[in-house]
């Protein structure tokens, strides 16, 4: 939520009350509001209870560009807004005079919501809120490839897949409970923006489980893979047998 406060007096300085009486305290907080697709959000105007509000106007400017929209006007607790069948429609309401609420959020609801708070016919204050709506985090999948194997362990490449999504953060963990990977470049190598993990694993290693963590600002999901399933299985042996046969064919 980005909260921007501006006081405007449309008159001569002598007819305006003290700006300090209407301004928020110095150092207004700046926030980003993050919500999940299908959820709800409330924007609450911050105004001192000592100040009388004549009306509050709300408008919306989409992050993707395009024309802004006038959403509603609340005058003494009475809500007025344009054709309810357009844009936000019935998803928009006022929880109270100072709070705008939107339910069943859609991705194109992301944008800047601005409240213009009128104290008199010539004095107002603006507060703006920045909303980003995110899709739910999908469940990741881990693919693996045995690069090489020895009696003591194997070298494996793990790849974390998130179907059709690029706006996600991806990281790797090990063990249980989960913890971040160590910094040993000899044992771990991460590439492709975190999606690919190359592991040099020894059968005597304490941790054999590796986990892909996928997240965005509104959620996270994990998928795990145990290297013992392949480093101590026929899959690795079959790889070595294929490798030996190929080498012998080259010698012949």
From TrEMBL:
Gene3D superfamilies: Immunoglobulins (2.60.40.10). Signal peptide: none annotated. Keywords: Glycoprotein, Membrane, Signal. SUPFAM superfamilies: Immunoglobulin. One of its GO terms (cellular component) is membrane. Pfam families: I-set. It is found in: Membrane. Residues 140-224 form the Ig-like domain. This is T-lymphocyte surface antigen Ly-9-like isoform X2. It comes from Podarcis lilfordi (Lilford's wall lizard).
